[in-house]
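Subject line: Sequence and fold of a protein, written as structure tokens
Enclosed: The protein record, placed directly beneath this head.
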Amino acid sequence: MKQSTAGSLPALGLRANAAQFVLLVAVNALVGGMVGQQQTVLPLLAHAEFGLSGYTFLFAYVAAFGIAKATSNWFAGTLSDRYGRKPVLLAGWLFAIPVPLMLIFAPDWGWVVAANVLLGINQGLTWSTTVIMKIDLVGPAQRGLAMGLNEAAGYGAVAATSMLAGYLAEHYGLRPAPFLLGIAYTALALLLSGLFVRETRPHALLDAENMTTRAASVRHGRDANLANRQVFALTSFREPALSSASLAGLVNNLNFGLSWGLFPLLFATADLSTSQIGLLFALYPGVWGIGQMFTGALSDRIGRKHLITAGMLTQAGALAVIALGHGYGAWAAGTVLLGAGTAMVYPTLLAAVGDVAHPIWRGRAVGVYRVWRDLGYAVGAIMGGIIADLMGLHAAVWMAAALSAAAALAVAVRMYETHLPPRTAGPCGGCVRNASDPSHQHVA
């Protein structure tokens, strides 16, 4: 897409915005690293230094993180649509400053929970904003690729930092060494975001100007001026593709939230070392992160729906492997498979939301989707903790497997294809649904 005729708005596309896109990928890697610094360490710290044994109480920090992140996602979307993306990004990094210090000096578990509230706000504001900014920059044609690269950077950094934090914890102790990473990440992110990141809201306005026969135009009468409550209702319940994405996202992050609190404890039952546990935990987000570099682009070619359905089914199978496993080899295979299934789903869901949401309310739609998705952290932590306390760790994993299979079925039944691959577009290339779909609508 070229620059607008007025000459006041920038061009859309990955190549035209390569420098800013790469910079935002780097910033999102630092966002993911803030989570990775603590994932391997905190469950072990809970036992070793705070003497916690009840799973429900122990998982409170994951629930606090999830609720805070989900809430801040909504504010990130709303505020970025109203005031611009960059101010929200910078505000998110300011919330990160106390987090590693609180984890280093925490005298009791309440400090850890409080630090994760701040971390959740940081993640919601910064990750949501980098997602919205990349969607703004690339336009509709390469949206899946953009989301794949964004999420690959974030979760690749989660994996790398989890493994590095496990190594530091084993060789230098659980505190403070692993959390020094968070101090460095925050300082670097504030520098990059403050000095080099540019506002992308003008790109969204250009996208809206060019939008004639896209999904929101077809399904919502070209109405770009929706109230917040309308955007919430569409994304949560009314619009089939948006609401199906929200459900699948919630179950996906339920799995991640469960794994965050439960996997280190499950793996510790086999008397594995801290570094081995860190490596096992890193396999999941590592495969997830690398895989998204390919699955996001793949969804641009073959469409979103079937990739999401297959990914949720793959996650269900992977969790069954982990529940049945009793050693390093089986758990490694299960976490690799779980990462592959998540890679199929994660960028594709974001791309589907971007397909359907009008650029004027896209930030709010992404925010609402991420509210539901990141509530999965809290749901996974609370349900997983209760089931683990009552029935054991393996039963909690089986619960997640069953919910993943149910989500796959719901997507298969309710969601329509939001992205028509270019090679099959034909004379109706601007339409949302495939021409064979009985509810297909053509817009001239």
Summary: The chain has a mean pLDDT of 84. The chain has one domain: 18-208+219-421.
